[in-house]
Structure formats: structure tokens, C-alpha cells
Amino acid sequence: MSTDWWRGATLYQIYPRSFADADGDGVGDLAGIAGRLAYVDSLGVDGIWVSPFFTSPMRDFGYDVADHRGVDPRFGTLADFDALVAEAHRLGLKVVIDQVWSHTAAEHPWFQESRASRDNPKADWYVWADARADGSPPTNWQSWMGGPTWTWEPRRRQYHLHNFLPQMPDLNLHHRDVQDALLEVGRFWLERGVDGFRLDTANYYCHDPLLRDNPPQPPERRGDIPAAMQQHLFDVCQPQTLPFLERVRALCDRFDDRMTVAEIGSHDNLARMIEYTRGRDRLHTAYSFVLLGPQPRADLLADMMRPWQEGDGATAWPSWALSNHDAPRVATRWARGDAARARQLLALLACLRGTLFLYQGEELGLPQSDIAFEDLQDPFGKAHWPHDKGRDGCRTPMPWTAAHPTGGFTAGRPWLPSDPAHRALAVDRQEADPDSTLHLARRVLALRRAHPALRLGRFETLHADAALLVCRRVHQGDAVLAAFNLGEQHAAHDLGRVPRPAGEKLALHGAALDGARLHLPPGSAFVLPIDPWPDPAA
User: Fold this and answer.
1) Is the pLDDT of residue 215 over 70?
2) pTM score, two decimals?
């Protein structure tokens, strides 16, 4: 096995507000997470990624940070965080935490000082620009939260940049002092024992210093909200980001066994992932939204595995997620509510080359929740209803106990409604059923942990078309054959030789191997450790 623990690892994402509430106020907390870590460990994951728990006005539920070194009282205290890390490490789990460094909350002391005048010590710590001659914003850049990315500040008589909510001003990472301050924040948490950082919106760190307008999207790519109507050439993904990423890597390398994973949202996701992680001077790994949107064709999924084994990509390392707190749950988005397909997708995720992120409840096959408008909390959902209901549907409370009115999440009123459909899939109910999705998740993760081929090996595509993917993962003397039918029709594939089993097979939804021929009904999966055979290209 590689000495880099993160390479090929599986990290379980915990959204603190919705995981477990220890104090009964309806909002999950750090003590609640610590109390459920034994369950997380039982899944067979390598660690956890904890979404923000820092001091925040909670306009964007923690991604608007007002104190980078403080724990918000809703979640507990620094002592609670230290206890969580200690318990995770006792169980052998790594702890990765979010770092939100592209922007802050407007309440952050840095911004309060910066906005006060044009000549204070932090005057240039945020992105400020003069109005155009007609008073309009400096550029045409559009926010994903809706509206322009610029808000007027009367104190300075300038606009400030915000790629998200107006109350989330963008830091100026072109400024060396800002970089230094953020690296000191990172050092603070590394010294508290965290094992790594998930870097929120890492490709948003730097903007075009010339403030050039973004060009429009071509008609065939034009979206239906303003931010999707332009090509994001100048507001994100600037080359000045790379030296800062190298500084982040250098900081982490001063500590033993730490890692960084970037979140990237870009029109060229794979190229940007490689750019941010190639070599040993940039980040350790990165993930993007490439698998958090519509289900790709099977052959396109195979194509996504290829760049990491050639050219610059051979020195880079990807991460993959099928669900997270910003995207509709994959059991609805890809599996369309079909429980068998949700199980297939767990097996598919376990067979991808890279580091994996499993979102809380994904191991239960939880579908997306449908939240009534009056119960919405997400500002994006409120602004875009009913065209887009926002992110609350993937953030509802984790169901622990089927018979409890809140699924055992809290003794109080939960911040989002507990979904009755989720309670039917609660942990206690699935623990009692050996054929449950939960037990399958443990089985596929155990298979991944047992086989270096799945964690570290090459991804060799044996066959791929619109619906069917057949691949082989190989690392030294270990090999695993895997096949998935993502389509609606029965599929078959002749391997050309009879594989010699080297372990127990995983056959889902009627998948079978007859000699050298694979038979795969719609929504099925077949995974089999095998004795390696010669490279077909040799």
C-alpha cells in the first residue's frame, strides 16, 4: 500500500447541522458527531470530512465564516472539536475539515476594517473597485446566488466583489498579507490535529486583476440563470491561484501525513483538477462537480478515468463524489428512486480510481427530500423557487431510528423537517436487515480496502458504450474485474477469456458470469477479484 493514506481512501462527509444533535436544540453539533463516530467507523471508511462548524451568521449555513478559528456556539466549543478529533483518531479515522478561504462573512473583523475606508491596514484585503462612469458595477460578472457579483459600499464609495451572497465578500488573494493570514489559520487547525483540508471553491481564489468582462456563452451552452449565460473566463480559474496552492501544500508538508483536497467548479473540470494537483508541489487531490450533475454515459465515465494515467495527469490524483451537500442525492438524480440502482452506484463509486467521498446517508440509499417552500432554509432555494428548490433536499436530518418522529436526530424540532421516506430507511432498520443497502455499503467498502487494485491500481477499460462499462483495476499482483449496466436494456459482453476468480464476487440485480460471458440486466453490477491476465495491448 502507498504510504499516502489519502490516496485511494474513502472519506465520509458529515454535514454538521444534519448529522446528530446532542443537545436537543434541533441543530446537529460536534458532540453529536463524536457520539456517532463508532457507526462511521463501522462502515469501513478511512476518515471523515466535516463541513464548516466555524463562527458564522449562517446566511449560507457555515460557508460564510465570521471567525476562522472559532467554533460557532450552535455546534459547541473548541473543546468539543478537540474531543471529536481525539475520538476519531482513537478509532483510526482521519479528520479533514473545510477551509473557506475565497470569501468571508460580512461580519468578519477583516471586512469590517476593510470596508471602513480606503487607507486602513486591511483596505486591500478584499476586492474593491470603482464604479464605471455611469455608476454601474465594474464588470458584468454574475453570481451563482443570483444577480451581479458586485455590491456598492457607501463608506468607500466603491463596489466589493462577491461570487456568492452579497454578504459574503471575496478576499483579495493577490495580496500577500491575505495569503499569510489564511496560512496562519491553516496552521492553527493543523496544530490542533486535523489531518487535512477540503478547500472550498478553490478555483475562486483569484480574479482577473484587469477586471475584464466575461464573454457570453454560445447559444447551445447558454443556461437559464444569468451566471450560466456567460463564460467564466475572468472571475475564476486565474493562473495567480497556483502559487498560493503551492504555499498551502508547503504548509501541510511541514506536518506528517496531512492532505488537501480542492473543490472545483469549472467548465473544464478535469483539466482544472489535473492542473491543481499535478506533481508534488500543488494540492494532493481535487474533486469537481463532474459527477454531481446528470448521469454521464458509461463511455464518458470511462473517459474521465483516462487522463489520470497519462501525461501531466499521471502525476495528479483525482477525487470523486456522487453526492454532497450542494447536489441532489444520487439515489434520485441518477437512480431515479430505484433502490437497486442506488446499490449499483455504491459499487460503481467503490471501483473508481481516485479518492472517494461518501455523503452522509448515501450508504442508506437515501433519496432527495422534497421540502415545502415554507420550510426552506437555503437562500438559493428561496430565490429560485419553484424552478430550483435549492439544496435543502439533500441536507435533511440523518435518520437513525425509524420509530422516532425525527428519526432519532434530535429531541427537539429539527432545523429541516425529518423525511418520513428517510425514516423508513433508518440506520436501526437497515442494521437488522442483512440484505440492506447499509450492509451492501460495508461490503463494497471492505472490498475496496482489501484490494490495492481498487485503491491504487490502473483503470483499464475493457468495453464502454452508452450504457455498459466493463473495466479491470490492476495493481502489481492484484486485479479486480468490474462491470456496470447503466442503461435500460439487458446487456452482455464477451471477455474473450475465462477469468480465474481470486476472491468472492459481488453480483447485484441479476448480474452473472457464464464462462467468459457477462450477463448484465439493467441497473446491475458485477465485481470480481481475479488473477491478473496479460495486458490486452501487450
Assistant:
1) yes
2) 0.97
